[in-house]
Each structure stands twice: as C-alpha cells, then as structure tokens.
Amino acid sequence: ALISLRQLLDHAAEQGYGMPAFNANNMEQVHAIMDAATAVDSPVIIQASAGARKYAGEPFLRHLIVAAAEQYPDIPIVLHQDHGAEPAVCFRSIQSGFTSVMMDGSLQADMKTPSTYEYNVEVTRKVVELAHALGVSVEGELGCLGSLETGMAGEEDGSGAEGVLDHSQLLTDPEEAADFVKKTGVDALAIAIGTSHGAYKFTRPPTGDILAIQRVKEIHARIPNTHLVMHGSSSVPQEWLQIINNYGGDMGQTYGVPVEEIVEGIKHGVRKVNIDTDLRMASTGAVRKFLAENPKDFDPRKWLKASTKAMKDICQARFEAFGSAGQA
Length: 328
Ligand code: G3H
Ligand code: 13P
Ligand code: NA
Ligand code: ZN
What we know:
Elements: H1 5-15, E1 19-23, H2 27-40, E2 44-48, H3 50-56, H4 58-71, E3 77-84, H5 87-96, E4 100-103, H6 117-133, E5 137-142, H7 167-170, H8 174-184, E6 188-191, H9 213-222, E7 227-230, H10 238-246, H11 259-266, E8 270-275, H12 277-293, H13 300-322
Parallel strand pairs: 1-2, 1-8, 2-3, 3-4, 4-5, 5-6, 6-7, 7-8
Sodium ion (NA) binds at residues 47, 80, 82-83, 102, 139, 274.
C-alpha cells in the first residue's frame, strides 16, 4: 500500500531506524528494491527524479509503482518525487499520485545556481500549503550539496568548476534550519554536510573535515523533532568499482559515504538516506561481468537478471544496516 513520507518517518523516529530512499527509473530497479524489502520485511521509499519521468514517461513511472503495490501487497511504499526544481514540478507529481515531494529551493529553478534564503522559504512554503491539504508530504533542502574538498557542486562524471560554492553554503546552519522549518512546515529537511551527487564525492576515504557528521548532531540538537535527510549518500562500493574497471569500464578512483557514518547519522535524527549511484554501479558492474563471461548469450533477460540481483543485494544490505529490516 502507498503511504506518505511523514507516516513512515514518524514511525522510523519512534523506532530509531533510518530509511534508504532508492531512485528508480525502470522495472528492474523497482523489482530489486521490492525483492530486497520482501526478503527482510522492510518498508520502502522509491523516489523518481525529473530525469526518471523523462526516461520512462509519466504513465510508465506511475504504473510501475501501482504494479509494485499490487505485486508486493505487504510492503508499505512511499512514492517520493526527488529534487523538484520549482513548485510546478511538485504539483504535477502530486497530480500523478506521488505521496511525497521534494521542493529543492536550495537552488534556483535552473538547478545550478544557489538561491537566496528568502526564495527557498517562499517556494517551499507554497508547496507545503498545497501538498498538506492533499495529505502529501514535503521534503525541503537547506544548504547546497557539494564537496568541502573542492567547493564543486558535484557532477556525475567528476567534472565541474571548482570553488563555485563557499564553505558556509556547503554546511547547513542549525539556527537557519530551525527558522526554515518553522516558516515552511516541511515534513523532512535535507541538509548539506559535504556530500555530493554521483560517484565522485571524495578523493580519499572521508574524515570529519570533509564529511561533517558532527554537523548532523548540531542540527538534530537544535531541531530534534525534524526528520533529517542525507542526499548524495551512496557508499560507492570499492568492489563494484573494481568489477566495472576489470570488465572494460574506466571509472576513476573515488570514495563515497561509508555505511557506518550514515548509521552514526541515523543515531542523530537522519531518517531518509538518498541512494542512486550505488545501484547504478552495481547494475553496470553486473552487466559488464555477465556479458564478458557469457559471450554467447543474447537474451537480455539474463543480463538484466544479473543486474537486478546485484541491485537487490545492495538494497538488502542498506535495509539491514539502517535498521528498517523487520519494520514493514
Ligand atoms: O539527484 C540526483 C539523483 O541521483 C537523480 O539523478 O536526475 O540523473 O535521475 P537523475
Ligand atoms: P547518490 O548519487 O550518492 O546516490 O545520491 C543520490 C541522491 O541524493 C538523490 O537525490
Ligand atoms: Na529527495
Ligand atoms: Zn539528491
């Protein structure tokens, strides 16, 4: 059954667990998430970006989740829209049946330029007003995702201009967070602590100076009743990086957010943990390996099955580590 983000995260806070929120674009990803949830009895958050809607088409995306609810009737599902660039995007998703939307007002509608605080409050409050009237939850974001090492906003391929974000934009301020939550009424707040989207987050295994879990604790101490969200929280599994490169890939050396750091965050108010890159890497690695080892095969179901299994294993490991296993 579909439930709202608020319902799920209130339960997570009561019971002290965190929820991975996996991005999905196609049937195999939905299968992987739902199979893993079934194996360990976890609720799920499936999130779709504007890019996912463009890839699959709105009806396919919507029906994938309807199909998941039908095929897996015992698993509570939050259908969340990831990174809405402007209120109109969120409104369209609400119309489409999403039970939760993210209004990302930390950036202007171009999704590149940092916005002003006043703009962020205004657009987020606007979405909350309509969404709450319809029982839909809202996630806001305060602070900009980006690297404390380089000031880069974090591009998918590791490229991008250095130093576009300054230190204060890269770490959410606890006082401002309190004001933002009060003014907007968001159900969950995404915070900036040095993580960025994509595989190229850290040039070395992160330490406290470049991954500010301490900041999570300071924000949670100031707004203990707000559900915190960590974006850019893929762990960038080194074993999948190796497999990709061993079977014809060419990814640079890079590091993600260690699972144990996320677990530390969950002890201090983090309830939703966004993960996309890890499933992309597992899927690509598994497909490269399968095709290299089975050169005679040409039935796509075989390599897609390998991809689904690899993604499922990651999902299951996160449900177990974050404590949502057994909570469905
Ligand atoms: O926010 C980033 C997520 O990983 C979604 O990525 O926009 O390529 O679908 P996407
Ligand atoms: P990753 O790129 O670390 O998987 O982050 C995904 C994310 O934050 C989606 O909103
Ligand atoms: Na989101
Ligand atoms: Zn994100």
